[in-house]
Amino acid sequence: GESVGLHLPTLSVQEGDNSIINCAYSNSASDYFIWYKQESGKGPQFIIDIRSNMDKRQGQRVTVLLNKTVKHLSLQIAATQPGDSAVYFCAENFSGGYQKVTFGTGTKLQVIP
Amino acid sequence: DSGVTQTPKHLITATGQRVTLRCSPRSGDLSVYWYQQSLDQGLQFLIQYYNGEERAKGNILERFSAQQFPDLHSELNLSSLELGDSALYFCASSVDTTNEKLFFGSGTQLSVL
User: Fold this and answer.
1) DSSP labels for chain B?
2) How does DSSP classify residue A36?
3) Residues B90, A43: C-beta atoms closer than 8 Å
């Protein structure tokens, strides 16, 4: 069935460097993708989203890239800060039906001061 | 603060027991979703309700059930609890059924002893 997976379970980054978190998805019908951040003891928090008619979308210090050809999604965090330390989940959805949002297993980002 | 309220925050119970988790969605949101998150695991979709009706079902056990009330709050009932049911249970809400931009509560930590 459909699945969303992440390449790296843990990523350690020096403070101030850029972080790149990758995600692969398998459902070619998915047309909406979301990145969530989950800090310890909290629920996932929406970061940024992108629709399948776009390749790139930028937010504040974050950029999401979508490559539909290889079904790959990435989240780039510029100038990583200690407050960025969290688990990041990508999620996919097909907005044309009642399909549930499918989450990947998550990548833990550790920012080294 | 996401605007989604979950109670209780922590729940400790014994095997074989039954518990009820409660969720109040964001004001104006008609859809409620329940997710289970075990240690070091991703978010597993359980069930979705929209305006009082079940809309999508994930890998929810028969021992688990949920409902959404006319005031749109939702309850997740877990019965005949087993040790393996220990997990974080998240509720999320969204405006409609397109599953876009889920807003998560802080979760209920269930410990079955």
Assistant:
1) --S-EEE-SEEEE-TT--EEEEEEPPTT--EEEEEEE-TT--EEEEEEEETTEEEEE-S--TTEEEEE-TTS-EEEEE-S--GGG-EEEEEEEESSSS--S-EE---EEEEE-
2) E
3) yes
Tell me if the bond preceding B8 is cis, omega within 30° of 0.
Answer: yes
What DSSP element (H or E) covers A45?
strand A45-51
pLDDT digits (tens, 9 = 90+) for A7-20: 448 999 999 999 99
Contact check, Cβ <8 Å, B100/A95: yes
Q: Strand, coil or helix: what is A27?
A: coil
Q: Do A105 and B42 touch (CB under 8 A)?
A: yes
The secondary structure of A79-90 as a DSSP string is S--GGG-EEEEE
- The beta-carbon neighbor of A100 closest among B48, B100, B104 is B48
- A66-90 pLDDT, tens digit per residue, is 999 999 999 999 999 999 999 999 9
- Rounded to an integer, the average pLDDT of B74-88 is 97
